[in-house]
Amino acid sequence: MKISKFLLNIFLLSVLFVSCNNDEPQLPKGDYENGILVSGEGSGAGYGSVYFYSNDFLTTESQIFKKVNNSDLGTFLQSLAFDDTRTFIVVDNQNTITVADRYTFEKLGVITTGLVLPRYMTIYNGVGYVTNWGNASDDSDDFIAVVDLNTYEVINTIPVGNGPERIIAENGKLYVSHKGAWSTNNIVSVITIATDAVMEITVNDNPDELFIDNAGNLVVLCEGLTLSYNADWTPNEKTPVSITKINTNSNEISAELTFGGGQYPSNLTYDGNDYYYNLGSKIYSINDSSTTLSVSELIDTAAGNLYEIAVKDGNLYALDASYTAESNLNIYSLTSKTMIHTFKAPIGASKIYFN
After folding, report:
1. Closest by alpha carbon to 30, among 3, 56, 65, 6?
2. CA 9, 15, 17 angle in degrees (round to 5)?
3. How would you classify the pairing of strands 127-132 and 153-159?
4. Alpha helices for the chain (secondary structure H)
5. Rounded CA gap, 212 and 168, in Å?
6. pTM of model > 0.90
7. Which distant-in-sequence residues (6+ apart) come within 8 Å of 233 by Cβ?
8. At 50, is the secondary structure helix, strand, or coil?
């Protein structure tokens, strides 16, 4: 009996010990976790860079890679990609991908061979896949670089059509939008990862942003080909512009929301069950089951150069890009539809990420 009570006491103490350990807060991973990262392409006025903003908006820090590593990333910084512990910084005309700790931004390595004008990267089952334009004046040398993330080497290439841009991975497949590099294109490539087999889906001209919605559809913003310009170099006429849905089982277009004349969105993002897109400086929103586009604006950002939007936790993030000085990151409440914060952002600010 005494032995039984003793064992019971030991058992209760062990449960209490495990419970207390599970309640302990996780140790910080680094200065740049729990925040927003904004990357900037850079220009003649300064190199590409990454800025940090804490989730509570109380802490901001500019050029975090340079501050940590005392080195620049070069121009033009195109995009970032992430795995659980690392960030991959794609600088297209340097033909490099710099690898850094995701939360401290300490440099871990660099991929310097096998890339030719890299654009965007996605990671699937521990392998990196990078869109490459190749020689931008050659329509036939574009490819996806397959990267071993242990050795930081390109171990394979997959030839694709001209101007591969955004890339995402889902259920053993890669989906690639082809904006056409310096020309134009109208395809989305579907690549079976196990075999490298490529098939093409024809969509409207210049597909760019793409994502998988909650129903499993591939959603693509097709920005259209500009046929003529106004005096201020804004588009005057384009080929059809649309939000296109593709059934990922059949690889066929299942729905298409086409914009009327003079309505030319350049950004599309997705949060919850809603799509958000812009017409000029104005933001619109529709439910992902909607069969019509919105006729009333959600927010007017008044941005002179609205380059990128993102939505998270009830806030809209919008980049007003400048190539001669720092840009602006403006943050709006979707509830009050008013701007709640504005911060300086990198030169040529172009992408928003949540870390």
Report:
1. 65
2. 100
3. unpaired
4. 2-23, 64-69
5. 9
6. yes
7. none
8. strand
Which pLDDT does position 21 carry in this prediction?
52
Query: Taking Cα atoms as reference points, which of 84, 172, 93, 83 lies closest to residue 132?
Result: 93
- The one-letter code for the residue type at 341 is H
234-282 pLDDT, tens per residue? 899 999 999 999 999 999 999 999 999 899 999 999 999 999 999 999 9
pLDDT tens profile 26-74: 788 999 999 999 999 999 999 999 999 999 999 999 999 999 999 999 9
> If you search the block for the tokens 């220009």, which residue do you land on?
43
DSSP, collapsed to helix, strand or coil, labels residue 9 as: helix
Tokens of 81: 């990609």
Query: Token digits for 178?
Result: 């082809």
Which one has a higher pLDDT value, 26 or 168? 168
Both tokens of 89, joined, read 């910084």
**How many C-beta atoms surround the C-beta of residue 2 within 10 A?**
6
Quickly count: other Cβ atoms within 10 Å of residue 232's Cβ: 6
Edge-to-edge strand ranges of the sheet holding 349-354? 60-61, 49-54, 35-40, 349-354
Predicted confidence (pLDDT) at residue 181 exceeds the cutoff of 50:
yes
Q: Can you name the residues that pair with 167 across neighbouring β-strands? A: 176
Distances (CA, A) of 344 to 52, 109, 308: 10, 29, 15
**Do the beta carbons of residue 264 and residue 235 sit within 8 Å?**
yes
Quick one: what percent of the chain has pLDDT higher than 70? 93
Q: CA 117 to CA 252: how far, in whole Å? A: 30
* Contact assessment for residue 213 and residue 221, using Cβ atoms and an 8 Å cutoff: no
Q: How far apart are the first and last CA of the chain?
A: 55
Closest CA to 260 of 294, 302, 220, 297: 294
